[in-house]
Structures are given as C-alpha cells and as structure tokens.
Design goal:
By secondary structure, this protein is α+β, with helices and mostly antiparallel strands. The chain is built from 15 helices and five strands. The chain has helices spanning 21-36, 39-48, 51-68, 70-73, 174-210, 212-227, 230-239, 247-260, 264-277, 281-288, 293-301, 306-329, 341-346, 351-356, 364-384, and strands at 94-97, 100-114, 119-131, 133-143, 147-155. The mean pLDDT is 84.
C-alpha cells in the first residue's frame, strides 16, 4: 500500500491554551462529591435537572399551601349569595381606564331581563369603575371551622362586585367556591393514598417475603379485586353509604373507598421488589443475625426502594382525585354542603345550562392542571428514583 501524500494528511491540532491544573482538581472534586453523595442527594440533583417536574412541583406546593388559607384567599364566603347577580358572567380585571392607570379594577354590571328568552343579560358599564381592595375586611367566615374572621386578600369595592369566574344559579361566586373546593379535592387524594399504601405495602410485603401458600392466597385476592370494573364498583360502594351520615362521615367514607380499591397495583409492585431483595446479602445477613421478619421488612427491605414508593405515590394521587371528581359529578360522592371540584361540576350536568352559562364548567380546569402536574412530577421522580441509571 502506497503512503498517503503529505498534502492529504490531517493536521494534528494542539490547543495553544495554557494548561490549567486547577481545572483537573475541580473536576476531581466534583467527581468525588458525586461518588460520596448519598442516594437522596443524587436523586435531588437529577430531579432538579427535570425542569418541567420542578415547575409542576412548585405549582402543586402553591395549591396545597393555598388550601390552608382558602378563607383568606377567597373574596367571598362559601355560601354568600347575591340574588341580583344570578348567572352573572365573569368580570375581567383591568388596570387602565380611558388611557389612565387606575390600578386593578372591574366594571360594574347593568342587568336587564330579556323577555323573549327570559334570560338575565349582564352588560359591563364603563361608567362603573370599581377598584379592588387588598388586605381588607369582607364576608365573615370560620377559619378551619375554629376561629371567626373576616380578613381577605382581595375584596370587591364598597357596594361593588368581584366575580372573576362568574356566579352560579344561586348567585354564589364561582372563584371563591373553587378555592374552597381545592382543600377537599386535594386532601381526598392524600388520605386515600395513605389507606392504599398501608394496605398495599403490608399485603405486598408479606406476599413477597414469605412466598409459598401465603403468596398464592394474596395474589388470588389481588386478582379478584382487579377483576371488578373500577368505576361501577366505586359507584356501588358509594351508593351504599347511608344518606343520614353527616358530610364529614361521607368525606371519610369516600376516602376509605378510594383507598380500598387502589392498593392491588402497589401490592404487586412491592411483592416483586421483595422477591428480588430478600435474596440479597444484607437481607440474608439480617435473618442469620436473628432479626424478626418485621424488622427485616421495615428496617432493611422497604428503605431499599423508598424512592420507588415516592414516585408511585405521586402517580397514584391523580387517580384518587379523578375518582372523587367522577363520583361527585355523578351524585354518588361528596354532597353539599361539602364543596369539592366534583360537587361544583355536578351542578353543570345540564347541557342546556352549560350552553348558556359555560363558566359553570370552569372547575374542570384545576382538575386538569393538578392531574397534569402530578403526572409530570411523578415522571421526574420516577427518573430520579434510579439515580445511577
């Protein structure tokens, strides 16, 4: 083979930049910090790089924090009615009036009754400029049912109105009712997941650790539960709740029903993990040293895949929220005077009403946002749960 001509040979590139030994030292320090970091710290580093998951977790944190002070955020009380503004459309918030900065304000309504359609028609009146009040005193409420108060973050003008999302058939502010419903809809998911995780981890752990006939019995039970259609079973159990129960008992009853029917998937996942981990050296060593099964499971096996459980938790909460919303929408879940997003949607079942007053469907927006945020955050946690991948 003949040698290549000198002109066709590639030049060997040498960087003219001076060598900086401190850069190598910095890289070594970063590598050492990574290898010495705990699994939780590596998970946090990896989760932080998932920008969408971080953004969604911030949204969920704000929603849960807002549920703690729903009475303060809502401009009106939960059951405050305005008979002169029934089915009033949403009022837009403006900053400028006639090219002059006024600050946040809304235009008042002029209402007239259409004698042909027998419908109340509301028209914004530019002459009624109603500035919003902030950090003000408004409708009375009981903070968490314990303390009396009347402090609000934002209030309508004196003698004015503030219906940013319109009103319902009784003249109640939809925005305030959605804010109050956030507390119930979000906590139903948390309580339901707690019940589901207790059952799923217990039965799945026993099945995977002991195996044999115990495993067979639990797996057949899981198959029986999973063979039932989920929504009809929810409906049947919800309809079985006594009508005479108080709203609080109905709330806890729906929570327990959601938790009792959501555990089989988690139990299967825990079982598969235990079958793999119980043969590991650290688990066998704990058994040989005389550790009880409860200690081996709780002290050694469960912590080995806690990150996986956290990811499963965030992906299971949306199904709980959707379950409560579906049951309440069908009239078999929570009932007034308890207010949740599903209860609010129940009032929008009539298609004729929705066609005339579409803002009654607005409670579906927070359901969509929360479910989407939980799914994105769960994806980020699921990726971060295996930090060495």
């Amino acid at each position: 083979m003949s040698a290549q001509p000198a002109d066709d040979r590639l030049e060997h590139y040498v960087s003219p930049a001076p060598f900086e030994p401190q850069s190598v030292e910095t890289l070594s320090a970063e590598q050492e910090a990574f290898y010495r970091a705990s699994q939780w710290r590596i998970m946090w580093w990896k989760f932080r790089r998932h920008r969408i998951a971080v953004f969604c977790s911030v949204i969920l944190a704000l929603l849960y924090l807002s549920s703690l002070v729903s009475e303060v955020i809502a401009p009106y009380g939960l059951n405050t009615r305005d008979s002169s503004h029934i089915y009033a459309p949403p009022q837009a918030v403006h900053l400028f009036h006639e090219d002059r900065f006024v600050g946040p304000f809304v235009y008042g309504y002029n209402m007239k009754l259409n004698l042909e359609t027998m419908k109340r028609e509301f028209v914004a009146n530019p002459e009624k400029v109603q500035p919003l009040r902030f950090f003000c005193r408004g409708d009375d409420y009981e903070f968490w049912g314990l303390l009396d108060g009347d402090f609000h973050l934002v209030c309508p003008a004196e003698g004015g109105t503030l219906y940013m999302l319109g009103t319902d058939r009784l003249g109640r502010d939809m925005f305030s009712r959605i804010i109050y419903g956030t507390r119930i809809s979000l906590t139903v998911g948390l309580l339901g997941i707690f019940v589901s995780f207790v059952i799923g981890i217990t039965l799945g752990g026993i099945s995977g650790y002991y195996g044999g006939w115990v495993d067979n019995v639990i797996q057949r039970l899981i198959e029986i539960v999973r063979s039932f259609p989920e929504l009809p079973l929810w409906m049947a159990l919800s309809a079985a709740l006594p009508v005479t129960w108080s709203p609080i008992l109905i709330y806890f009853g729906i929570t327990i029903i959601l938790g009792l029917l959501d555990w089989p998937g988690l139990a299967r996942s825990v079982r598969s993990k235990f079958l793999a981990l119980r043969e590991e050296d650290f688990a066998v060593a704990a058994v040989l040293m005389g550790a009880t099964p409860a200690r081996v499971i709780g002290r050694h096996l469960l912590p080995s895949f806690t990150s996986h459980l956290i990811a499963s938790l965030t992906l299971s909460i949306p199904s709980m929220i959707l379950g409560e919303t579906a049951l309440s929408f069908l009239g078999l879940g929570l009932r007034p005077p308890i207010t949740s997003w599903g209860v609010l949607l129940n009032e929008a079942q009539n298609i004729n009403v929705v066609a005339l007053y579409p803002w009654l469907m607005l409670p579906v927006v927070p359901v969509f946002v929360v479910v989407l945020a939980f799914n994105f955050m769960g994806d980020g946690l699921r990726d971060a749960a295996d930090p060495y991948n």
